[in-house]
Amino acid sequence: MVDHKHDPEWLKANQDAIFLAQHRLTRFPVPTLVFVEGDCIGGGCGLALACDIRVAAPTARFGITPAKLGLVYPFHDIKLLVDLVGPGQAKRLLYTGDLIDAAEAHRIGLTELLADDVESARSAIAAASASSNKEMKQFVRQVLDGQTDDDAATKAVFAAAFAGADFAEGTSAFVEKRRPEFKD
Questions:
Q1: Cα separation values, 8 from 12, 15, 62, 122, 129, Å
Q2: What is the helix, strand, coil percentage profile of the chain, to 5?
Q3: Mapped to the 3 state alphabet, what secondary structure does 3-65 carry?
Q4: For residue 15, what pLDDT is reported?
């Protein structure tokens, strides 16, 4: 980026590409996980913010450093950050540009899990109903985008779930005291 800092066309194309990647991640129809083992700083942190679940190894470090470079973090990235950690912690990270370790990132809600790998989280999500997760992910996105109450569409999705194959399998598994085996 430093080589192109005076090229407005390159800068715009670069920012557009990053925004598109984040936008697609935040709206990807199935849950997304990111596993951070080392440094997750700036744009890398922005991509991690766009994922549904962030898993950090104990060695991970996080930072959002535009203030140390005389830059401004993009609005979309700031919204993702505020949605995760709240305005106070977001301001602290943005205004200082300080790096924080995995434990601190977890404490403030920047990551959901501390683990040596992502397998446990991946397995748990894979064992759950994909159709339930897809719809609930959409509902969470709607909340984060400002929706505050049910509408006809969300009520229809909720009602339709009771007639779905996954509900039949889930309730059968519950009654039979076994793990459900959902079809993809």
A1: 6, 10, 28, 40, 46
A2: 60, 10, 30
A3: HHCCCHHHHHHHHHHHHHHHHHHHCCCCCCEEEECCEEECHHHHHHHCCCEEEECCCCEEECC
A4: 85
**How far does Cα 30 stand from its chain's mean position?**
11
Cα dihedral across residues 74, 8, 23, 98: positive or negative: negative
Percent of the chain, pLDDT > 90?
Answer: 84
pLDDT tens string 37-79? 999 998 899 999 999 999 999 999 999 999 999 999 899 999 9
Reading the block at residue 138, the tokens are: 């959409």
What sign does the dihedral 75-80-81-82 (CA atoms) show?
Answer: positive
Angle, helix 165-175 to helix 130-144, in steps of 10 degrees = 110
Tokens of residue 43, six digits: 């744009």
